[in-house]
């Protein structure tokens, strides 16, 4: 009677293994497949009869063999469970994702538990892999991270131009000014605005004005270095902090930018729009006690560019230059 009960219990156990919604795989010491449940059949497209006694490493070349065998041998040697999660490695076996709710993922994200299986004499020969489909969890987390990154982007950048917004740009300027104070690194500020912008808006409309701002911003973004900070200071006014740059170097940059904008042709509706910019340039120096004084110096230079007829560069404390 007890033998019949044991056989019955074994049948139930096998039925459970086949029915549960996780992958169950048993491997011998040579990584040959001994157990392959229906979850594995359904997602791999390979029936148990086709994979039985064959090496899992040969059947699935996408497995990182060095990484996987290290995990399995650690479980065998220590006799304890070993876990892998999708955030460390998205999957063990590349199965397609067929869940419509998580259609943003083309593969199944997986967590894996590796269990050492002991024999009656306490030796560890086989291991059991339990493979969990965690695609819902993974996609939700990835979408949340992407949304947070987008919110962060919006918090730091101007929506129209993609340049740094004024608040974040000023925090970068403050940080760079502190760096100059500690290490005496040179840094220069270029402030410019688009000449006669109100007249352009009044003539062609605000959408045309927005397109001019976008195009000038894109041109500016393409000319600055990764270490520089370009921001929209307000309306049609822009500011660029040039790190590790002397006043002379900033003047050369400003003149190149002025000429590039002057050559820029902006197609809008049936019009081909052109514009120019006026620029003021200032460099951090020892008598400045805070970053607002650098902004003030560059802004005064910009004002002198406008007073002198616009479409020109003026250096702080110097005459205007074309």
From TrEMBL:
Keyword flag Transferase: yes
Domain GGDEF: residue ranges: 185-318
Pfam families assigned to the protein according to its UniProt record, in alphabetical order: GGDEF (PF00990), PAS (PF00989)
Alphabetized UniProt keyword annotations: Nucleotidyltransferase, Transferase
Taxonomic path: Bacteria, Pseudomonadati, Pseudomonadota, Gammaproteobacteria, Pseudomonadales
E.C. code: 2.7.7.65
Domain of life: Bacteria
UniProt cross-references to InterPro entries, sorted A to Z: Diguanylate_Cyclase, GGDEF_dom, Nucleotide_cyclase, PAS, PAS-like_dom_sf, PAS_fold, Rev_trsase/Diguanyl_cyclase
Keyword Cytoplasm on entry: no
Top enzyme class: transferase
Name of this chain's protein: diguanylate cyclase
GO molecular function: diguanylate cyclase activity
